[in-house]
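Figure 6 in text form: structure in, sequence out.
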């Protein structure tokens, strides 16, 4: 997650505003980890845009692919 375009401390505080679930940084977007909402949030000028109305609902197959890619990139604890 070293490629975050904003502060890691901010990332650690962010959750999906609809589902209140953690986010993953994958493919240049913040992806909700909630399988029901499957929202993706963009980052503009280094700031996360966490407005539900400006988010994108991902098709289930794309959401699953991105979550799997994000999990594979996570460092081990």
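Output sequence:
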């Amino acid at each position: 997650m070293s490629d975050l375009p904003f502060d890691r401390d901010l990332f650690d505080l962010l959750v999906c505003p609809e589902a209140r679930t953690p986010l993953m940084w994958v493919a240049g977007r913040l992806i909700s980890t909630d399988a029901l909402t499957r929202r993706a949030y963009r980052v503009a000028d280094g700031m996360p845009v966490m407005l539900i109305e400006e988010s994108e609902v991902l098709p289930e197959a794309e959401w699953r692919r991105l979550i799997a890619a994000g999990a594979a990139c996570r460092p081990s604890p």
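Caption detail: The mean pLDDT is 91.
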